[in-house]
Every structure is written in structure tokens, then in C-alpha cells.
Give the backbone structure.
Amino acid sequence: MKSALDALSMRQRVIADNIANVNTPGFLAGRVQFEDALAKAVSAGRDAVVTPQVQRSLEPTRENGNNVNLDTETLSNIDTNLRYQVAVRSIDGGFSAIRTAIRSA
Amino acid sequence: MGTFDAIGIASTGLTVHRKWLDAVSDNLANANNVSSTDGTAFQARYVVATSMDYGEPAGVQVAGIELGDPEGRLVHEPDHPLADEDGYVRYPDFDMASQMTQLIMAQRGYQASAAVVDRARESYQSALQIGKN
């Protein structure tokens, strides 16, 4: 879960970078991929730790060599924000279960 | 990697777009500056932005300012006190339509980065709630 939180936070930063560079000539949008790697690590039963990778988008660029799409970045920003909050809830749930167990003892 | 990096990165976007807005508004404010043919015309300012990347995404910065054409365009205004013996003065030579387009682009870019600040703040706020209940 912590891996997911770290990766989502990384994605949040990369989106901030993409949107900050929405008008920078020659800038290629960054993408953070971690879901597949994390799902694999979880199903393999190993300690589910993944390092998120930043890749540069190879989508066609505009005439100034920039390929940031403000609409997809904004959607991804909202999506990542919500996912992050879900991850926080779930971690928080784990902690409060532990706390309940401590109290009942 | 700082704790609240997304906000910092978005703020670099705010800074660059604000500088761009400043440059465009300066250009527009000086659109009708007249100078004599001995001197140079008002030179429009163009902000050059480059992305920053120190292995991690780090936002955007102003790499420099490019100046427009010092020649300007010669206009025949014999009545003008600054006119030379042939009756010409210099006006700045930049495209008004392009400046207005840049104004909109800079404004929208600024708004987009401002929205990112809001969303990043929401995420961090939720992280601060871990372990509260």
C-alpha cells in the first residue's frame, strides 16, 4: 500500500511538472507507470515493493515540439488525487484496526 | 525529493506564466510608443521557457528574454515632433494578434497550474489525516 501511495505521489508531481510545462517548447509529457508492476508483485506474493518509473510520452507533438494535453493531464490529476485519498483511507483503516486491537487488550 | 513537491513544481508553472503575462502586457502597453529614426523602436519582449529536470521532474524556468526587432516599422508622420527630415518615425514592430494569443495562452497556463496547486494540497491534506481517527 505504501508503494502505491509513493507512486501516486510521484505521479502527482509528474503531472504538476507536465502542466507547469504546458507551453514549454520541446517538452515531452512524463508518464508514471506502476500499476502493472505492483499487481504482479502482489500476485507473486513477494514484498510488494515497486519503484515507479517516469517515461516520456511519445505521442505526436504540436509544432513547438510539446505534447502535453491539458485535458488528459487535468483528468489524470483529479484521478490521481482521488486514488491517493483512497490509498490513505485504506492505510488509515489498517492503523485504526491495530488501535482497536490495542484498546481491547 | 521534498515533502510537498507537487505544490513547488506547480508554483514554478505559476511563476513562468506570470512572467509571460508581464512581458505580454508590457508589450501591449508600449504598442504605440513612438521613437525618432535616430534611436531604436521599442523592442517587444519574448519569454523563453525551458523545463527543469534533475533526474526528477522539477518544473519550468525562464531561460531568458528575447528582444524583438529594434528597427521597428517606419511610419510617415511628418507632423510628429520626433519625425526626421523625411517625416518618418519608428513604431514597434510586433504582431498584435500574436500578442493577444500569447496573453490567452499565458493566462490559461497560469490557471492550469493554480488548479494543480489546489489538487495537490487536497492530497497532502488527506495524508495528514493518517492515524487521526
